[in-house]
Every structure is written in C-alpha cells, then in structure tokens.
Amino acid sequence: MPASRRDRRRRRPPRHPAAAFLIEIATILVFALVISFVVKTFLFRAFYIPSESMESTLEVDDRIIVNLLAPELLDVERGDVVVFEDTEKSWGASADVETNAFQDAMTFVGLLPDTSSHFVVKRVIGLGGDEVECCDDQGRVMVNGEPLDEPYIFDGDAPSEVEFSVTVPEDSVWVLGDHRGNSADSRSHIDETNRGAVDLENVVGRSTAVIWPLDNFGGGGSQREPFDSVPDP
Q1: pTM
Q2: How much is the pLDDT for 181?
Q3: Rounded (10°) angle between helices 17-42 and 101-109
Q4: Which of 9, 36, 158, 163 could anchor a disulfide with 110, C-beta 3.0 to 4.6 Å?
C-alpha cells in the first residue's frame, strides 16, 4: 500500500462510540423493516377484525396473522377462515379505522395490522362446483347433499334463517360468517351473477393465528373436520 494512503488512514480520527452505536442501531432497524416488508408482501400479513360477523371464533379488535401462500401455493379448503378483498365494495364492510401517518407507515412495512375496510373475513363453506343449500329437516346447511354439524356457529344462532340453493362457480369460494345472525355474507349476494361467490383471485390468504389481544391468542379459526364427509361435487 502506498505510504500516502497509509498515512491518511492513520490520520483518520476514530469514530465516537456513541456515533458507532447509533449507526449500528440504524442499520439493524433498516434490515428489520426490509425483512418485515418482505414477509408482509409474500408470506404473512396482519389484519384487524372490525365487526362481530365471525364471533365467537374471531372477536372485534382481534389481530390475526394471515398466510399469503393460500390460495396461490396452498389449497383453500372448506372450513378455512379466509381474508378476501372486496373489490366491488359491496359487502357492507365497516368504516376504515382512523390512523395517523406513523401507523400507516407501520402498516405498509407490516409492523401493524391492516385496518382497511375493503378486506373481509369469512369461513369457506363451498368450493367451485359444490352445491350449497339450506336447509335439511334439522335446519342444517348441506354441501353436495351432506348436512353439516358446525361447532363454530355463534351460540344461539341457527345455521341460516335464509333458505338458499347455490352451485358455486368454478375458481370461487362461497362463504358465511360464524355469527350467522349478524353477518352480511354470500347469502346477501345470492341474486348477483356470481351467486354470492368470491373469486379466488380476490382471496388474500388463510387466517393462521390470533396474535392480539393475548387473552384470545391461539389458532386462526379454520376447522375442516365438519366437512370431512362432504363428497366431491
């Protein structure tokens, strides 16, 4: 190494310990934000539950983690709790929760749950090609002729007070809220062209876990067992 370069390095003043510490902390924070953004964009994303339509599985103000690999890489099945985007803004979602600029930035990078009103949480009852109808002589919803015993329905609610018979369009899901008496779901859109079904392209992912509040910490609410006996369409 030329002498002049060695001399310049020798003459460089040492970095102050406090400055070095701050630079190290800033670097860690930047990496953490980048990792959080990547996770939120491709793997997992947090959402906020604004309404009572999924009680008692998901309560108002619950924060849930959603697996973004479904339905692109992982199948969405009957009984799964999913988040989908209300692209037509016709599902009667509640108003957006008020946020400030800092909260919006934290939501963007994935450190706070998304509180946007155009995301809806429901349970998948039927897949493309399924015949979903209500009700049998015991008041149960049927899928492909098989009656369902649904343990997740809100205590005191009937499986449905509305009669319906629907063939779910291909590449779609037909969804209901667990609080059947307080849920604007596929039944409310049964007279539309898609018969109340949600296009799989609009499904953001499958609910994986409740992460807040800690009293409600646990699974995301999906229950496939009640559909085990449902035959293929």
Answers
A1: 0.80
A2: 94
A3: 70
A4: 36
AA identity, residue 89? K
| Amino acid letter for position 230 | V
Q: Look up 222 and say whether it is catalytic.
A: no
Closest CA relative to residue 122, chosen from 152, 160, 80, 156: 80
83-105 average pLDDT score: 71
Q: How far apart are the C-alpha atoms of 169 and 124, rounded to whole Å? A: 14
Sign of CA dihedral 159, 188, 77, 172: positive
DSSP per-residue letters across 52-76? STTTTTS-TT-EEEEETTTTTTS--
Cα–Cα dist 184/180, whole Å: 8
DSSP annotation of 114 reads B
State how far Cα 216 lies from the chain centre.
16
Residue 60 tokens read as: 């108002």
Q: Which residue has the higher pLDDT, 179 or 15?
A: 179
> Which residue would you say has higher pLDDT here, 118 or 127?
127
Altogether, the residues listed in the chain come to a count of 233
Catalytic residue among 40, 51, 122, 222: 122
Residue 166's alpha-carbon distances to 63, 91, 189, in angstroms, are: 32, 18, 11
Residue in 205, 208, 211, 158 with CA at minimum distance from that of residue 180: 158
Active-site pick, 53, 160, 207, 222: 53
> Which of 52, 42, 62, 114 is CA-nearest to residue 84?
114
